[in-house]
Amino acid sequence: MLNKDFYKKDTLNVAKELLGKNIVRNINGHKLVGRIVETEAYIGPFDKAAHSYNNRKTQRNEVMFKDAGHAYIYFIYGMYYCFNIVTEDEGKPCAVLIRAIEPIEGIDYMFKLRYKKELKEISKSQFKNLTNGPSKLCIALNLDKSLNGINLFSDTLYVEDAGYNDFDIVETTRINIDYAEEARFYPWRFYIKDNPWVSQK
DNA sequence: ACTCGGATCCACT
DNA sequence: GTGGATCCGAGTC
């Protein structure tokens, strides 16, 4: 299990170092594991794309101001959630958005959560869309507002180093932040090169 | 493979 | 009253 020191660092480094790590989610007796393959950094005070730009603190984003290693899970587009991990020191509202995972373990149960169907009933298209997006992975891991604000140091939800290191990292611009003026061009999105579970090339 | 619009609703202004 | 750190299906090429 990664400890607080792992997250209590520069957000860009954490975003890169999270690639290849495994998210572990225990629910209803099922252990779900997914390898992180795509992340984005949101560096609050200086980042027009972040909910916490200019240190703006609201009911929604107050978890971003907590100490490193908390889960910031927010509701978006009327029907979806996004999962972030809070970084840096308490009071610095920074986080890493988990944009995609590669399913590793508990895949059958992920399909049930995501499609309410058994794996054998799933189409090819549904298979590749299981966890290749920030809200898709939240459905497959059953991450919602009830987990917003918890820390990542219990069996419920944590990240571990499974020793997967052999990959190249692609650095590019973040997705769907057209409103963010110059911040839309910051290369703060990271993904594992050639991994098929990345949301977009 | 690609674009486009609808779904859906809570937090924010 | 507005719009979003998204997803999906329909339509087109």
How many structural domains? 1
Helix content: 10-25%
Cα distance spanning the termini: 30 Å
State the order of secondary-structure elements, H for helix, E for strand: HHEEEEEHHHEEEE
Question: Uncertain segments of ≥5 residues (pLDDT<50)?
Answer: none
CATH topology (level 3) name: 3-methyladenine DNA Glycosylase, Chain A
GO molecular function, one term: alkylbase DNA N-glycosylase activity
Keywords: DNA damage, DNA repair, Hydrolase
EC number: 3.2.2.-
Protein name: Putative 3-methyladenine DNA glycosylase
Concise account of the structure shown:
GO terms for molecular function: alkylbase DNA N-glycosylase activity; DNA binding. With 201 residues, this protein is α+β, with helices and mostly antiparallel strands.
What does this structure look like?
- The chain has 201 residues and is an alpha+beta fold.
- The chain has a single domain (4-192), classed as Methylpurine-DNA glycosylase (MPG) (3-methyladenine DNA Glycosylase, Chain A, Roll).
- Helices cover 16% and strands 30% of the residues.
- The protein has helices at 4-7, 11-17, 107-115, 124-128, 134-140, and strands spanning 22-27, 30-43, 71-76, 80-87, 94-105, 153-154, 157-160, 169-172, 189-192.
- Strands 1, 2, 3, 4, 5, 6, 7, 8 and 9 form a 9-stranded antiparallel β-sheet that branches.
- The radius of gyration is 16 Å and the shape is globular.
- The chain starts with a helix and ends in a 9-residue tail after the last strand.
- The model has no long low-confidence stretch (mean pLDDT 96).
- The chain binds a DNA duplex (13 and 13 nucleotides) through residues 40, 42, 49-51, 58-60, 74-80, 82, 84, 97, 99, 129, 133-136, 174-177, 179-180.
- It comes from Caloramator proteoclasticus DSM 10124.
- Keywords: DNA damage, DNA repair, Hydrolase.
- InterPro entries: Formyl_transferase-like_C_sf, MPG, MPG_sf.
- It is an enzyme of class 3 (hydrolase).
